[in-house]
Each structure stands twice: as C-alpha cells, then as structure tokens.
Amino acid sequence: MVEKMNTIKTGLTEALPLAIAIAAYGLSYGVLAIQVKFSWLDTLIMSALVFSGSVQMITVAMLAAGRRRSLTSIVFTSVLLNLRNLLYGAALAEGLAPAKKWKWLLAFGVSDEPFVLASSRFKNHGPDPLYFGIVAGTFYLAWILSSLTGALIGNQIDPQRWGLDLAFPITFTALLLPGLKDHPAIATAIAAAVIALGLEYLWPGNELTIIISGVFAPFAGLYLSRRA
Predict the structure, then answer these.
(1) Are the CB atoms for 7 and 127 separated by under 8 Å?
(2) What is the value of pTM for the model shown?
(3) Which of 39, 95, 130, 137 stands the most exposed, by the fewest C-beta atoms within 10 Å?
C-alpha cells in the first residue's frame, strides 16, 4: 500500500508541471474550436473521445482554412499524425504488461508526454502500469477541463496574443532536450529541423511538413547507429 501511494505521489509530481503546459494548449484549442463554429459540447466531446492535441488542432486549423468539405483530407492527416502511437504502444507494452485487465484503458492514454515519462520510469524501476495510469489520467483531466474552459471563453481572448499557441511546441522541446545525449538522437533532431525549414521555404504553409519530417528524419539517426 505504501509503495502504491509513493507511485501515485511520484506520478502526480512529475505530471503536474507538464499538465500546466497541456492545459494552456487545451485552452487554445477550445477557443479556436468555438471560432470555427464548434459548440462547447462538440469541443468537449472531441476532447473526451479523441484526446489528441495534434489531431484536434490540425482539424480545427483545416476547418478554419475553409476546407469543410474535405473530410477525407482531415481523416487522412489525423491518421498519419497518430501513427506514431503504434510505436509508442509497442515500446510501452512490456511496462504495462502487469495490468492485464486494464491495458485496453491504459492504451487510450498513450501519447507523447505519457510516453516520455513512462519510458523513463520503466527504464529505472521496471513495469509500472499504475504510474502510467496516474500520469495519463492527469493529462487527460487537464486537457478536458482546459478545452472546456477555452470553449466557454470563446471569442473573448486571442490565443496568439497570449502566447497559448506556443504551449505545445515548448512542451515538446522541454521533453526532447534531455534525450539529445548521443549522436543518432542529435542527428535526427538536426535532420528534422533542416527538412522542416526546407519544406517551409519551398512550400510555405503546407500541411505535410511535420509528417514528412517525422518520416524521414529518423533515417539520419538510424544511419549513424548502424555505423557505430
């Protein structure tokens, strides 16, 4: 019992700082969703069922760009953005194995921030489904409440004026930097930056920059790993 309480305390302590950034991003999503004619209920249901900041924001962005009839494009882009969760799930499978009856529920919480925290936890302490559940649950509640708040606020604030649109990239940068310890990881990051900047220069504002960078940048890291 004491061990479980310590796990819960550790999960909350490590998740809360990131939950604040997630909440800022969720607030931005809620505001933008209302601006593209979502109701507050639509916004809340999408957050509750999808629970993917990148997918929800790209959906709102594409709707804001006037592509309401391009449902296929939205679905295709969303699927591509979330393909990384297949790799996350495979990497976390061993650490979540003890939770046999609850793995289906924990799988819903697989996303970027829980993956980073849980990977570190599993590496240092072994399998720990309870820790993952606490972390994912904290992020889920932060996302739900903040997106609902943003929807209720509606058009009263400008996310860009308050810098809320920066919460997502800043959070990812904070998660990424500690992992840049070896040459393959650094090469992957540099390759992603070069590809993204090149695409934005040649094809400004395109929707595939993140996807193309994510697909091809890891090859730089794999090349260095095999050479080593």
Answers:
(1) no
(2) 0.74
(3) 39
